[in-house]
Amino acid sequence: MEFRKLRLSGFKSFVEPAELRIEPGLTGVVGPNGCGKSNVLEAIRWVMGENSPKSMRGGGMEDVIFAGTANRPPRDFAEVVLHAVDDKGEPLEVTRRIERGAGSAYRMNGDDVRAKDVSLLFADAATGAHSPALVSQGKIAQVIAAKPTERRMMLEEAAGIAGLHVRRRDAESK
Ligand code: ATP
Ligand code: MG
């Protein structure tokens, strides 16, 4: 699977609708402190089904919704749309939207789907050759400072190979 485009609206600091193209190859997100780099990574994780408020740096799931500033009122929903191309070359559009007091809902190519359908879709993609690998700011420093064996584990994790080892151990223990 290859990611092509990300659309954000009301998600964290992205109060106005924003569209980010994701070109083939390695993508780096750079910019001054506080400009929203980590929020972009979190948006990608969130649309893929991340549900831990802690890994989204919030106390609750609704904390991803733009909370307002001194001169802008808060939003009542957040939406992230991920455009991708699947392994068969078919376009894929996944949307996740959360409304205050109403929880979050997913759509896949326009149809309502369950959270489980989305996490299964990306669980499979993570083990593929073109797996989406997200490396956060903190991890970069860890990769540089790590011992070779640790570094290999991190890279395997990023490439989605770690999942294969887990499945192999699981198969071997049967
Ligand atoms: P750094 O270089 O320091 O890591 P960064 O580019 O990764 O910064 P982020 O952490 O992505 O920046 O963005 C931080 C900004 O997002 C802060 O200004 C914070 O107030 C804002 N922000 C986070 N959540 C929300 C929210 N729910 N509503 C409004 N703004 C938010
Ligand atoms: Mg950051």
What would you note in describing this structure?
This protein has helices at 37-47, 115-125, 137-145, 148-159, 161-172, and strands at 2-9, 18-21, 77-85, 91-99, 103-108, 111-113. It is α+β, with helices and mostly antiparallel strands and 174 residues long. The chain folds into two domains: 2-131, Rossmann fold (3-Layer(aba) Sandwich), CATH 3.40.50; 135-174, no CATH class. It is globular and about 50 Å long. It starts with a strand and ends with a helix. Magnesium ion is lined by residues 37-38, 137.
CATH architecture of the largest domain: 3-Layer(aba) Sandwich
- Give the fraction of residues assigned to helices: 25-40%
Strands ordered across the widest β-sheet: 2-1-3-4-5-6
Structural Rg:
17 Å
Number of domains: 2
Report the count of strand segments. 6
Bound molecules: adenosine-5'-triphosphate, magnesium ion
Structure class? alpha+beta
Structural shape: globular
Order of helices and strands: EEHEEEEHHHH
For this structure, what is the CATH class of the largest domain? Answer: Alpha Beta
The average pLDDT value, as a whole number, equals: 85
Instruction: Flag low-confidence runs.
Output: 128-132
Features:
single chain; 174 residues; alpha+beta; Rossmann fold; six-stranded antiparallel beta sheet; 5 helices; 32% helix; globular; binds adenosine-5'-triphosphate; binds magnesium ion; Chromosome partition protein Smc
